[in-house]
Amino acid sequence: MGALVIGLAISGSALAGVDGNATLTSDYVWRGSSQTLEDPTVQAGVKLSSESGWYASVWGSGVSFEPDAGARSEFDFVAGWSGSLSDDWALDVNLTHYMYPSTDVDLDWTELNSTVTFKGNYWLSVGVSDNALASDTTGTYAQLGARFPINDQWRIEGVVGQYFLDKAYADDYLHGQLSAIWKVHGPWELRLTAHDTDNAGKRLFGNNAGSRVEFAIQTAF
């Protein structure tokens, strides 16, 4: 992954751009589970991409888990390729490494992800890992999502995800989320999201799963 970043930086003529994002959220919810014990946090990321479709990115967020393993931050390092397959279809394939510095136990793990998008508004994502959620067991995550633009300022987004986990670790669980997004001005957006998980998710994550509402202010630059 580091070699890809260096290669993109050296080949300046091949760079398509550098993009960034920042978010202030009331609760960092990932695949149906709160990663901050329902507390607010700040998130930010940067992405370096080439004209050929190769890219590398890093994204960070505050975290807080229970039981407490000492994790206070999460960094996601991503390297992959994205591009159009046709006028309607696009593909993104990447390797994501989830890193949690300064923890009492090793929580780091890696996942291979792929996303197929249709007309920019409908997508299917699949992620596979032989160390899902740092459990030393296999896991496959599948997500089906859609966005519905209402006008230039408003859109609705919905996601349904299923995590297929090794029975030695936990039962498979289902989650869903529904968001209303308001484009306030330029790149600034307000997002209100309702999350929920099934009972298997609650058994795995306890009070960090189940029904919750998240509010976020986000921007891209």
Structure in words:
The chain has helices at residues 2-10, 199-205; strands at 15-25, 29-30, 33-34, 41-50, 54-62, 73-84, 89-99, 109-118, 122-129, 139-149, 154-165, 173-185, 188-197, 212-220. The longest helix is centred in the first third of the chain and has 9 residues, at 2-10. The model has no long low-confidence stretch (mean pLDDT 94). It contains two helices and 14 strands, in the order H-E-E-E-E-E-E-E-E-E-E-E-E-E-H-E. The strands form two sheets. The protein has a twelve-stranded antiparallel beta barrel. The chain has a two-stranded antiparallel sheet with strand order 2-3. The protein has one domain: monomeric porin ompg (Porin, Beta Barrel). It is mostly beta strands and 221 residues long. A hairpin with a 4-residue loop joins strand 6 and strand 7. It is globular.
